């Protein structure tokens, strides 16, 4: 008897860096799932680079034997990976066809996948904070471990705008009108917002950084704090342990050790670390603990559970069959669960520097695209990085429509941050009609 394998679920990393086409449109500009598939197929057949260049996917070594017992296999795809399972074909009384797992899957089975970095590039071109209070890795799940998920996205909800919060360039927030925006710093160093108007809103964000070991460092951005309390709570809000630090000098960095509570801090349960300190300092971080999974060579851990709170994210139908091109008794055709992880590109200024260190002159044709600062020219607005090409957006001085212009792109992705908190990349240019020297 031949073995039959079918897709149990698929996870797609939709990274803006790779998924921008020749017209300058990204996969996030596409309104519905069918059109997104057409877009992705076009990128694949055009031989565009993909996320598999920089990260690899696999089951954790400690779970491989367990998953073999359920006849699970992992396959990489153009945008991520699929997990397939051996199944039995079942012909129903109405002649419809169903597939059920060859070995029954428990409702509480957690399937873990590690996304390992092949190099350091994904940290450079992906939108994320550079300075963070804790060195947490990304943790994605189809369950509502910290907030209610919106199918098919397994990312956490983006936080609403916080007064007094030190936003980094490119960081995301929901404004008072429920619109998504990203932050940047202008030529005066003032914090500005850029509205994100595409169809996809559930981007990877700082709330997805949850995975930590039992011992980790906490770093304060506020250098005036001398007294701080760290209160670790469970999902019901009950305090597990509390650590207080009181000293005569500012606390820059402190090591937190929760190993004495390891029996209570088992993944994939999520815990809340509430930090308070001088000057009304307050921060709350959701944490998933794992010494074995935490590795700085990893970019993320993906946790997919058989049955979760939101039935849309379940891997099987209520009757225990796969959602795989199955004609159900209701006459509805279903497909395997496909979960999405949309990732925005780094939002970076470009700094144009003369190759002989001469002072550049800003020509009239570029005065809405660039501004001058001492001897160099800087983009008025940051640019979302792309593996394919970059266009620089202008800032019209009047009611003229916004326009895009091709300008030289960085050769090196070396990120820098200046005194104005602008994140930028240098572009070295020779003297030319576009970039004359003074």
Describe this structure in words.
The chain is mainly beta. The protein has three domains: 4-157 and 295-343, no CATH class; 214-288, Immunoglobulin-like; 347-429, no CATH class. Helix content is 6%, strand content 37%. It contains three helices and 29 strands. The protein has helices at residues 33-45, 61-69, 121-125, and strands at residues 4-15, 55-58, 72-76, 80-91, 97-101, 110-117, 137-141, 172-174, 180-185, 191-195, 209-212, 215-219, 227-233, 239-246, 253-257, 271-277, 281-289, 298-305, 326-327, 333-334, 337-343, 347-354, 370-373, 376-379, 383-384, 392-393, 404-405, 416-417, 423-429. The strands form seven sheets. Strands 2-6-18-7-11-17-16-13-14 form a nine-stranded mixed β-sheet. Strands 22, 23, 24, 25, 28 and 29 form a six-stranded mixed β-sheet that branches. It starts with a strand and ends in a 9-residue tail after the last strand. 33% of the residues are buried. The model has no long low-confidence stretch (mean pLDDT 90).
Sum up the structure in keywords.
438 residues, mainly beta, Immunoglobulin-like, 3 domains, nine-stranded mixed sheet, six-stranded mixed sheet, 29 strands, 37% strand
Which SSEs are present, and which pair or pack?
Layout: E1 4-15, H1 33-45, E2 55-58, H2 61-69, E3 72-76, E4 80-91, E5 97-101, E6 110-117, H3 121-125, E7 137-141, E8 172-174, E9 180-185, E10 191-195, E11 209-212, E12 215-219, E13 227-233, E14 239-246, E15 253-257, E16 271-277, E17 281-289, E18 298-305, E19 326-327, E20 333-334, E21 337-343, E22 347-354, E23 370-373, E24 376-379, E25 383-384, E26 392-393, E27 404-405, E28 416-417, E29 423-429
Parallel strand pairs: 1-21, 7-18, 11-17, 22-29
Antiparallel strand pairs: 1-4, 2-6, 3-4, 4-5, 6-18, 7-11, 8-9, 9-10, 12-15, 13-14, 13-16, 16-17, 19-20, 22-24, 22-25, 23-24, 26-27, 28-29
């Amino acid at each position: 008897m031949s073995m039959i394998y079918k897709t149990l679920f698929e996870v797609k990393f939709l990274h803006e860096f790779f998924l921008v086409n020749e017209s300058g449109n990204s996969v996030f500009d596409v309104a519905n799932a069918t059109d997104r598939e057409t877009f992705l197929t076009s990128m694949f057949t055009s031989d565009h680079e993909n996320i598999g260049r920089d990260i690899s996917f696999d089951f954790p070594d400690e779970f491989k034997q367990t998953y073999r017992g359920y006849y699970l296999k992992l396959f990489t795809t153009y945008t991520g990976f699929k997990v397939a399972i051996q199944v039995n074909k079942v012909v129903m009384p109405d002649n419809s066809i169903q597939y059920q797992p060859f070995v029954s899957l428990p409702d509480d089975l957690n399937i873990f996948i590690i996304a390992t970095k092949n190099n350091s590039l994904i940290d450079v071109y992906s939108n994320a904070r550079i300075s963070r209070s804790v060195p947490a890795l990304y943790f994605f799940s189809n369950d509502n471990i910290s907030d209610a998920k919106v199918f098919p996205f397994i990312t956490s909800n983006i936080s609403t705008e916080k007064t007094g919060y030190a936003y980094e360039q490119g960081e995301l927030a929901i404004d008072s009108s429920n619109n998504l925006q990203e932050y940047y710093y202008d030529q005066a160093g003032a914090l500005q917002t850029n509205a994100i108007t595409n169809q996809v809103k559930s981007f990877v964000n700082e709330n997805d950084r949850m995975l930590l070991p039992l011992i980790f460092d906490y770093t304060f951005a506020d250098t005036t704090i001398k007294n701080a309390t760290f209160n670790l709570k469970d999902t019901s809000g009950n305090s597990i342990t509390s650590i207080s630090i009181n000293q005569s000098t500012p606390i820059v960095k402190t090591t937190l050790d929760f190993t004495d509570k390891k029996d209570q801090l088992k993944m994939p349960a999520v815990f809340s670390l509430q930090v308070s300190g001088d000057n009304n300092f307050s921060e709350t971080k959701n944490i998933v603990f794992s010494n074995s999974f935490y590795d700085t060579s990893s970019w993320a851990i993906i946790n997919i559970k058989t049955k979760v709170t939101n039935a849309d994210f379940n891997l099987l139908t209520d009757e225990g069959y796969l959602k795989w091109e199955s004609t159900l008794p209701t006459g509805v055709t279903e497909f395997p669960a496909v979960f999405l992880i949309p990732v925005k590109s780094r939002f970076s200024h470009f700094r144009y520097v003369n190759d002989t260190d001469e002072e550049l002159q800003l020509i009239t044709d570029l005065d809405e695209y660039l501004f001058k600062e001492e001897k160099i020219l800087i983009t008025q607005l940051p640019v979302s990085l792309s593996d394919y090409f970059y266009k620089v957006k202008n800032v019209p001085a009047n009611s003229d429509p916004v326009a895009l212009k091709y300008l030289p792109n960085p050769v090196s992705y070396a990120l820098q941050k200046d005194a104005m908190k602008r994140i930028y990349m240098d572009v070295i240019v020779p003297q030319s009609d576009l970039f004359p020297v003074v």
